[in-house]
Design goal:
By secondary structure, the chain is mainly alpha-helical. The chain is built from ten helices and four strands. Keywords: Cell membrane, Lipoprotein, Membrane, Transferase, Transmembrane, Transmembrane helix.
Length: about 260
């Protein structure tokens, strides 16, 4: 059994402003996405599609806004619906915390669609370019959750079980680190290898959807369900139910080129 290190979530303060580890993790993810995206712009198969650093920089800026706004809206609608009905202004209370990956994904998809329309590209083409940029940011976000001592796992007796300050006296799975490893590092490695050469349109995005959906679905069995929601239908969590459509869409994107060719 290991004690959570209880890291102060605030790195330092500048007057009334607190600089937090969780916010820094977002910047780490953004910086990595910018660096890796610039590398992709130099790859011949992406150049042939019309990608340039200018187009990518515009997309990254608005994509980041899509993550933040979509993540907040998704969290409130998916996980805090009753609280939102009682107090609609809660949607704008960013100081209370709460972000949803699936909401952020929907926000990003909207941004990708607008970018594709403006630049006369297909949504799937834009999605393929942006998919490898996301996992490291996801890993950084989960490390931020771990530093904050939040979103801990279910009780366990494994040797690496961890006691979290606000999780009671029981040792729990450090599920934030599981997610960082699977949804973040492993998924990035898979996408980085798969996207090194030309692929049928939509398949890189499909691999991301399947990879994230499966990783999230599995890790949810080790993560403590949201107290106010608990297990839903069939004993699945909200995160698992939201991941199932991702997996289905990813499979369709991966199989789509073969289905089109077979017609």
């Amino acid at each position: 059994m290991i004690q959570h290190p209880k890291i102060d979530p605030i790195i330092f303060s500048l007057g009334p402003f607190d600089i937090r580890w969780y916010g820094l993790m977002y910047l780490v993810g953004l910086a990595f996405a910018y660096w890796w995206g610039k590398r992709q712009c130099q790859m011949p198969h992406y150049k042939a599609q019309g990608w340039s650093q200018e187009k990518f920089s515009d997309l990254l800026f608005y994509g980041f806004l899509g993550v933040v706004i979509g993540g907040r809206v998704g969290y409130v609608l998916f996980y805090q619906w009753q609280r939102f009905l009682a107090d609609p202004l809660y949607l704008f209370d960013f100081t209370s915390g709460g972000m949803s990956f699936h909401g952020g994904l929907l926000g990003v998809i909207l941004v990708l669609w607008l970018h594709a329309k403006r630049n006369q590209m297909s949504l799937l083409q834009v999605g393929d370019f942006i998919a490898p940029l996301a996992p490291v940011g996801l890993a950084a976000g989960r490390i931020g959750n771990f530093i904050n001592g939040e979103l801990w796992g279910r009780p366990t007796d494994v040797p690496w079980g961890m006691v979290f300050e606000y999780g009671g006296p029981l040792a729990r799975h450090p599920s934030q680190l599981y997610q960082a490893a699977l949804e973040g590092i492993l998924l990035f490695i898979v996408l980085a290898i798969y996207s090194r050469k030309p692929r049928p349109v939509g398949t890189i995005g499909g691999v991301f959807m399947i990879g994230y959906g499966l990783a999230r679905f599995v890790v949810e069995y080790f993560r403590e369900p949201d107290a106010h929601l608990g297990p839903l239908a069939l004993g699945l969590s909200m995160g698992q139910w939201l991941s199932l459509p991702m997996i289905a869409l990813g499979l369709w994107l991966l199989l789509r080129p073969r289905l089109v060719a077979a017609k």
